[in-house]
Amino acid sequence: MFKEYLNAIDKKTQNFFKKNIINNSNFPFYLNKTEIINETNNFCFFSHTILHRPEDNLPNPINSNLYPFATNLLKKLSKKFKFKFKKIFRICLNLTINNGKEKSDVHLDHNFEHKQLIIYIHCDDLKSYTCIKKDNKIVKIKPISNKVVMWGKLPHYHIVPKKGFRLVLIYTFI
User: The whole model's pTM is what?
Assistant: First the structure.
């Protein structure tokens, strides 16, 4: 399963992202040294975890006041693009800048069955593709703002932006 939707986010949501995240110098992002569970590969990026992974085994996985906004957004997208979900496993904003690496490591977000949805909020370098390994081929996703991409449990990685930054909102769910 692989789906791509252009112009996926309404103006109100786009403005929310700009006002409350992109143009808000007080919005908290935290340094991560890996995108792979239980490993350190020195691939540095910044994130804002909205809902922790189930693998983190936290009594309260909700980690941000953006949780209601993010869950409502997923509900709107599921209605608009006619997909269903039963359980959300993870919600996270990832902010990537040029960290000296060419690309992230190939990874899966979970070791169990899941679907993944990415909303491209901002990207200064349109060559910082998301690359999905499917059927012994690489599917390259151009990081266009306001695009939504969804796929099943497939290995993936992304090219690091050479200039500016790339901001995505990631959901995993079933």
Answer: 0.94
